[in-house]
Amino acid sequence: MKQLLLLTAIFLSGCIDVDVQMDADSPSVTPTETMSVYMDHFNNEDIKAINEMIEPPFFFFNGTDKGVYYKYEDFVDFQGLRNSGWSYSKINSFETIYEDPETSMINWSFSRYDKDDNVILTASDNYLLMNVDGVWKLKGGFAPTSISTGRDNIVEKPVASVPDEAMEADVFVPLSVKESQAELTDSSSWVDDSMPILNIQDKHRQAEAWGVCSAVYRIAAELQSTESPSVAKNFNDRANGAAIAAGMTYFVKGEEGARYTEEQKRASWTLTQTMTESIPEVQSTAIMAELETSTVDVWMDKIVATVEVCGSNLDGQQAYIDAWRELAASGFLELQ
């Protein structure tokens, strides 16, 4: 039960003081040009070139399915696509949903053709791109309906759920709060504890950190659901707040310096809503997948260590929640 006690013991921690700045190089190739190059590599089945274009981990929401990938070949199987009749693809249209110096979201419509030039599929999906050292990289994608990636018939190992061992209180040895803090020094948090999250200048990295917090809070809530329902509820509330922080990172940092018009703010809000849902989901998938290569005890120690770090950033999380409430009070959200 030690991890359950540790989660409860660090439940009220949190303080932060921040001053955020941001900078980015200006890519010479635009996001839409990057997507055109991506399509060329796709048609050439050039896995190596595409791997150089993605910013791992790459995520994709494919209808109701979602996945996190460190290599493109884990996402797409060209032999599987050829077996389905695919020969090549063409872009039909682009739409820039959102763009700032560091982030872009592109919607594209495309069609797939067979060897006789017959259209076998027309679809639309959205891609999130990041400016990484002056180069637009593909970070993730969102398809409203499922699109074949050639891996449809490949049996994947299911992502792990919270293990039964972690849910059973008698697996852990009780220890005092003082002992728990000493033991945590040997644990590794998924969130960097060397600085407050709000001091992370790269908004993508900052949003990912909030996403990790949201994910571990959800897991902590599940672990506490039987032993301490009230604590579990509060962890769920924290998870919701961290998810808002993940999304609001894009809106607040995008608005810094009053660079955007009202129309651009609305586009930024569309991105914010998408990131609020997708970033915690992606981080949760990655955390649960780590169970496949780790022991329950080591994984649980990392959960506890991460909850402690996230708990120390509650003031920063609250700042984003307050900003969201200000938007609601101003009537801006009702206009969307």
Mean pLDDT: 79
Helix count, DSSP H or I runs of 4 or more residues = 11
Secondary-structure content class: alpha+beta
Question: Order of SSEs, N→C?
Answer: HHHEEHEEEEHHHHHHH
Shape: globular
**Main beta sheet: strand number and arrangement?**
6 strands, mixed
Helix content: 40-55%
Order of neighbouring strands in the sheet with most strands: 2-1-6-5-4-3
Distance between the termini: 46 Å
Low-confidence stretches: 8-24, 154-159, 168-186
In angstroms, what is the radius of gyration?
21 Å
Oligomer description: single chain
DSSP strand count: 6
**Strand composition percent:** 15-25%
Descriptive overview:
This protein is α+β, with helices and mostly antiparallel strands and 336 residues long. Helices cover 46% and strands 18% of the residues. A six-stranded mixed beta sheet has the order 2-1-6-5-4-3, with helices on both faces. Helix 7 (203-224) packs antiparallel against helix 8. 35% of the residues are buried. Mean pLDDT is 79; it is low at 8-24, 154-159 and 168-186.
Briefly summarize what is shown:
The protein contains eleven helices and six strands. With 336 residues, the chain is an alpha+beta fold.
Salient structural properties:
336 residues, alpha+beta, six-stranded mixed beta sheet, 6 strands, 18% strand, globular
Produce the secondary structure layout.
Layout: H1 2-9, H2 31-43, H3 47-53, E1 54-62, E2 65-69, H4 78-83, E3 88-99, E4 103-113, E5 119-132, E6 135-143, H5 164-167, H6 177-184, H7 203-224, H8 229-255, H9 262-289, H10 296-311, H11 314-330
Parallel strand pairs: 1-6
Antiparallel strand pairs: 1-2, 3-4, 4-5, 5-6
